[in-house]
Every structure is written in C-alpha cells, then in structure tokens.
Write a structure and sequence with these properties.
Blueprint: H1 2-9, H2 13-21, H3 25-32, H4 38-50, E1 54-59, H5 67-86, E2 93-97, H6 110-128, E3 132-134, H7 142-153, E4 160-164, H8 170-177, E5 183-187, H9 202-218, E6 222-226, H10 230-242, E7 251-255, H11 260-268, E8 273-279, H12 284-293, H13 295-307
Parallel strand pairs: 1-2, 1-8, 2-3, 3-4, 4-5, 5-6, 6-7, 7-8
Helix pairs in contact: 1-12, 5-6, 6-7, 8-9, 9-10, 12-13
Bound molecules: flavin-adenine dinucleotide.
C-alpha cells in the first residue's frame, strides 16, 4: 500500500512541489544523490574510484516532455563524458541513461528521437573510451527499450541493458541476452506494476531474481548484479563459483549511499563493484523510488517533517 502510494506520488506534479519545497528534503536527498552539478558528480566519482569502486553516472531526468529538453539531456551527457575523459576517470566510470529522459515518451517520433539522442551519447562514450547502460523504466517501455538497444548494439556492441526480475517475461529475456559480449544488469525492479505482468510479493520477486541470475551466470555474457540484498549477493557469488567465472567476467552494482560498507567489502575481496551515482537537479522521481523501497527511509523523512512542525 505504502509503496504503491509513494510510487504514484513519484509521478505527481502536486506532491513534487510540496516535497521539493520542504526544507529537510535536501539533507535526505544528499544521501542518495551526489549533488546538482556536473562538478559534484565528477568529485563524487573520483572519491569512489579512489576507494577501489567503479561508477556508472546518471544525469538525473525522466519523462521528458519536449524535444529541446531531450536534446539538452543528450548534450549534458556529452559534457559529462568529455569530463570523465579529461579527468582520467573514464577507465573506471561509465554512464547510465533513461530513454524517457532523451525523448522516448514524446508523442511525435518519440522512439526515433530517443534513438538519435542515445546514439549521440554512445558516440561520446566511445570517444571517451567508456560504455553506456540503458536503464529500464516501467513495463510499457520494455519492448521499445530492448529494440532501441538492439539497434544501437550493431554500432556499439558494448551497450548494456537492464532487466527487471519482477517482470514475468524477464527469465525469457535473460535467455535471449545471455550471449557472448552481452552486458545485462539484473535488478529487482523499482516501478509500480500490475499483477498481469509482474510478480508482486518480495518472496516471489526474490525467487524470480535467482532464476534470472542462474540464466545470466550460466550464459556467456557479462552479468551485472544490481542488488543490495545480502541473499542475492551471496547466491551470485556461489553461482560464479559453480560456473567457474573469473571475477572479471561479472560485476556487482549498488546505488550511491546504500550499503557503502558492503560495497567496500566486495571491492576489497577482488570483485568489480560499481556504484550507480545520480547527480543533477531532476532528483524527485529517483528520490521517491528510493523512499518506496525501504520503509525506514520514509520513517526518517516523516520524522524530519514532524520535528519541523
Ligand atoms: C545499480 C542499480 C541500478 C538500478 N537500475 C534500475 C533500473 O534501471 N530500473 C529499475 O526498475 N530499477 C533499477 N534499480 C533498482 C532496483 O530495481 C531495486 O528497486 C532496488 O535495488 C532495491 O532492490 P534490492 O535488490 O536492493 O532488494 P530489496 O529486497 O529491495 O532490499 C534488500 C536490502 O537492501 C537494502 N536496501 C534496498 N533498497 C534500499 C534503499 N532504497 N535504501 C536503503 N537500503 C536499501 C536494505 O537493507 C534491504 O533490506 C537499480 C538498482 C541498482 C542497485
């Protein structure tokens, strides 16, 4: 119930205005978002890389409503990728892109515009010597996102995609994408989805995650295990052993600000550990999904609200 309400609020302009104007919000947002500027994103990346972790940067934004804004987002990624190259961080830092931020939902030619903007970002990544992963949004976008990824992969075979274990289709998608050279990030899924397309309870989603993970770890691609769940991390390690995978043939990924000690432990054990690092002004949707994932985050937020009277 609470999760559904928060996820609905993540797309409400009215709630957005209230949350953004609420003074303690900023302090809580800081835990999950590196800052609003490119420089803050670069500084946080440098710090994580110095600690032995890798990074995937997200220039925050989603559900872009006009073509100029979509092109602006592609340009922001070009600046980001140039900055990663200039600072020598590109060997350890890639970018994550939401297709809805570069035009996928635009009513006229949305998919075409998103494909062109994503292509610009891939070209900039290739010039910088790094890679791109396409984030996955709600289930209405899955086919379109996988199709755009398929087109881009003919020129940029290193392009990664995300699959969400809560979707009933995902085990089959994993089978399609478990081939050599394929980079797939497996997460549980962060959106509010109907039962017709998605498993609902935690236990069902966890079981689906393990089934999908088995396919990816048993395949020939490069699995990216995106979860903070200690059980999923443990099972991934076991599957790596059973499938005789070297530590450079898969990686763990976690979100900025979540379980940092575990991130360091995995990196210190010789694993590749990549942190998903968001920065930028459009933090609202991202922040609300993080609140929805964990009641303790919400309690913290509400307590701050109450103490402000
Ligand atoms: C690198 C990365 C990229 C992602 N990309 C996408 C994407 O493209 N599309 C998409 O739909 N989803 C994405 N997600 C989000 C993902 O789908 C889940 O919503 C999120 O990771 C929580 O699931 P979990 O696997 O950590 O397990 P859960 O069962 O939700 O959590 C397990 C434990 O992790 C900790 N934890 C989890 N979430 C939080 C939190 N918000 N705050 C504090 N502690 C927490 C808690 O200790 C919790 O008990 C991504 C996640 C990661 C790590």
């Amino acid at each position: 119930m609470l999760r559904s309400a928060l996820l609905a609020a993540s797309r409400s302009p009215q709630v957005r205005t209230v949350v953004e104007k609420f003074p303690p919000t900023q302090a809580i947002v800081k835990r999950f978002v590196a800052g609003e500027t490119l420089q803050q994103g670069i500084d946080a990346t440098a710090e994580l890389v110095a600690s032995g972790r890798r990074v995937t940067l997200d220039h925050l934004g989603e559900d872009t409503a006009d073509a100029a804004q979509a092109a602006g987002t592609a340009e922001a990624y070009e600046h980001l990728l140039a900055a990663l190259a200039e600072t020598g961080l590109a060997a350890n830092a890639e970018v994550s892109v939401k297709l809805s931020a570069v035009g996928q939902f635009l009513p006229v030619d949305g998919e075409k515009i998103a494909l062109e903007n994503a292509r610009r970002i891939c070209e900039a990544a290739a010039a910088a010597g790094t890679t791109v992963t396409l984030d996955m949004e709600d289930h209405t976008t899955t086919d379109s996102t996988l199709e755009i990824a398929r087109e881009l992969r003919t020129d940029f075979p290193w392009l990664g995609v995300v699959l969400q274990a809560y979707l009933r289709r995902t085990e089959a998608d994993c089978r399609d994408l478990a081939h050599a050279g394929s980079r797939v990030r497996l997460c549980k899924g962060a959106y509010k989805e109907p039962e017709s397309v998605a498993f609902q309870g935690k236990e069902q989603v966890d079981l689906a995650y393990v089934r999908a993970l088995k396919v990816l770890m048993g395949g020939e691609g490069y699995p990216m295990i995106a979860s903070h769940d200690p059980r999923m991390v443990r099972i991934a390690g076991q599957l790596a052993e059973w499938n005789k995978r070297d530590t450079d043939s898969f990686e763990y990924q976690m979100l900025y600000g979540i379980r940092p000690e575990e991130q360091l432990r995995l990196a210190e054990e010789g694993n590749t550990m990549r942190v998903y690092l968001p920065y930028g002004q459009e933090w609202y949707g991202y922040f609300m999904r993080r609140l929805a994932e964990r009641p303790a985050n919400l309690t913290f937020f509400l307590r701050a609200m109450a103490t402000r009277g």
